[in-house]
Amino acid sequence: MDFTFDEQQTAFRKALRTFVDKEIVPVASEWERSGRYPTEIVDHMKAMGLFGITTPEEYGGIDLDKVSFTLVYEELARGWMGIAGIVGSHNLSCWMIAKHGTEEQKQSLLPKLSAGEWRTGVGLTEPGAGTDLQGIKTTAKRDGDHYVVNGAKTWITNARHANVLPVLVKTDSSATPPHKGMSLLLIDTSTEGFEVQRDMGKLGYKGTESCEITLENVRVPVDALLGGVEGRGLQQALSGLEIGRLNIAGRSVGIAQAAYDAALQYAKERTAFGQPIADFQAIQLKIADIATQLQAARLMTYWAASQADSGKRVDMEAGMAKYFASETAITASLEAMRIHGGYGYSTEFVVERLYRDAPLMAIGEGTNDIMRTVIAKSLVAGSSVIG
């Protein structure tokens, strides 16, 4: 049993940390408040190859192992969680194309996407369907060598910057059960009828856009059907979400780490009654709790990622990591705010941003209640064993 990084992972984490500390941390709070899009940071991430971390090398990517994959999101979220979202949705889409796409789709899309020359995201959620993806209303009706798509999607990350977007549709609305009639279409966002309507107002998760999209009589070539076979869209999407939960777990660890760092530094610098507040037992207990939960979340996340690297399905492991790490991020950010006292509520300190960013981690890629059911079903079915 080895809990250490190999030489390559260690060097990779060092490069990530240097980038985050130099390019992201100094500007994150100011840019978030002003609503400034982080173009320079995105360009730097392109140069580092971070838009191709799930793309095989033969298509221009760097195809990271899953532990290094989680490290990307941990380190980016430590600096600014919204930045992690930009490459998160993008690389999830690339992973689905690489795993499920036809050879023609891989060759035509992945080289541009992995270089960051083109951008993408994932179009699953609708105004009336989130957790229950089988309840989507967006349809794609065959018309000769095209599909005609009508519907709406919401909470779409990278919507304004995407060149191509995998969109979950119903190619057969009468199918029973519904998932047998669901497919993913790789839609060119410049197609007539594809419109980004508005950016959603958000508590946190700023730096990247989350948008509502409408599709009105959008004509999509038949060869844009992911994998070339109808009826596999939900399975393709869910397989991607399994990996996406490692992304969320990594981001959660990054938020919790940033909260811990801020709390510890402030406790050492802030004085009360003639001594640093870090000398008070009440503050020490909070710091100990944050640190312990953070390290547990980190180890669970790396464990789940290492299991994915072994080639096995990680429904339970990724679900556990996402569930525990996201709850840790919420608790850590709140406790860090309490250690800061009144200053924790001020926009002059980073903890208020962490406190706003953390709750999304308990919602994204499946709510934590759903994670608990995923974990339980794996255990009851005997596909996973504890102990």
TrEMBL record:
<feature type="domain" description="Acyl-CoA oxidase/dehydrogenase middle">
    <location>
        <begin position="122"/>
        <end position="218"/>
    </location>
</feature>
<feature type="domain" description="Acyl-CoA dehydrogenase/oxidase N-terminal">
    <location>
        <begin position="7"/>
        <end position="117"/>
    </location>
</feature>
<dbReference type="Pfam" id="PF02771">
    <property type="entry name" value="Acyl-CoA_dh_N"/>
</dbReference>
<dbReference type="InterPro" id="IPR006091">
    <property type="entry name" value="Acyl-CoA_Oxase/DH_mid-dom"/>
</dbReference>
<comment type="similarity">
    <text>Belongs to the acyl-CoA dehydrogenase family.</text>
</comment>
<dbReference type="InterPro" id="IPR006089">
    <property type="entry name" value="Acyl-CoA_DH_CS"/>
</dbReference>
<dbReference type="Pfam" id="PF02770">
    <property type="entry name" value="Acyl-CoA_dh_M"/>
</dbReference>
<dbReference type="Pfam" id="PF00441">
    <property type="entry name" value="Acyl-CoA_dh_1"/>
</dbReference>
<dbReference type="InterPro" id="IPR009100">
    <property type="entry name" value="AcylCoA_DH/oxidase_NM_dom_sf"/>
</dbReference>
<dbReference type="InterPro" id="IPR013786">
    <property type="entry name" value="AcylCoA_DH/ox_N"/>
</dbReference>
<dbReference type="InterPro" id="IPR036250">
    <property type="entry name" value="AcylCo_DH-like_C"/>
</dbReference>
<dbReference type="InterPro" id="IPR009075">
    <property type="entry name" value="AcylCo_DH/oxidase_C"/>
</dbReference>
<dbReference type="InterPro" id="IPR037069">
    <property type="entry name" value="AcylCoA_DH/ox_N_sf"/>
</dbReference>
<dbReference type="InterPro" id="IPR046373">
    <property type="entry name" value="Acyl-CoA_Oxase/DH_mid-dom_sf"/>
</dbReference>
<keyword id="KW-0274">FAD</keyword>
<protein>
    <submittedName>
        <fullName>Acyl-CoA dehydrogenase family protein</fullName>
    </submittedName>
</protein>
<feature type="domain" description="Acyl-CoA dehydrogenase/oxidase C-terminal">
    <location>
        <begin position="231"/>
        <end position="379"/>
    </location>
</feature>
<keyword id="KW-0560">Oxidoreductase</keyword>
<keyword id="KW-0285">Flavoprotein</keyword>
